[in-house]
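Structure tokens please, single chain.
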Amino acid sequence: NDTATTFDALKHTIDNLALLDQATNRSYHNAPFPYKRFCIIERDKKGLFVPMCTKNLFLKYYSSSDMASSQLENMRWRDEDRRNYLAAIRKVLGAFFN
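Here you go.
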């Protein structure tokens, strides 16, 4: 199935990756975005190290904050979120490589 192949390829690209320790990453496997978000917030509350960009990603800091967007859309990792996250990565790295 081409859709499944495309999805598998995309899940390993930089715009779909977050910096997590091995235990955290393995603890939720392919869980839905809200559960992953919950895990990251709980780790942060406990004082465990969560890289700032990873925390921002799960708080959807890089995503547009359109007041008209539904709460449901805010609980999904969408293509728009991926593009915005990648744009933020490029912006930060551009300062070093330009």
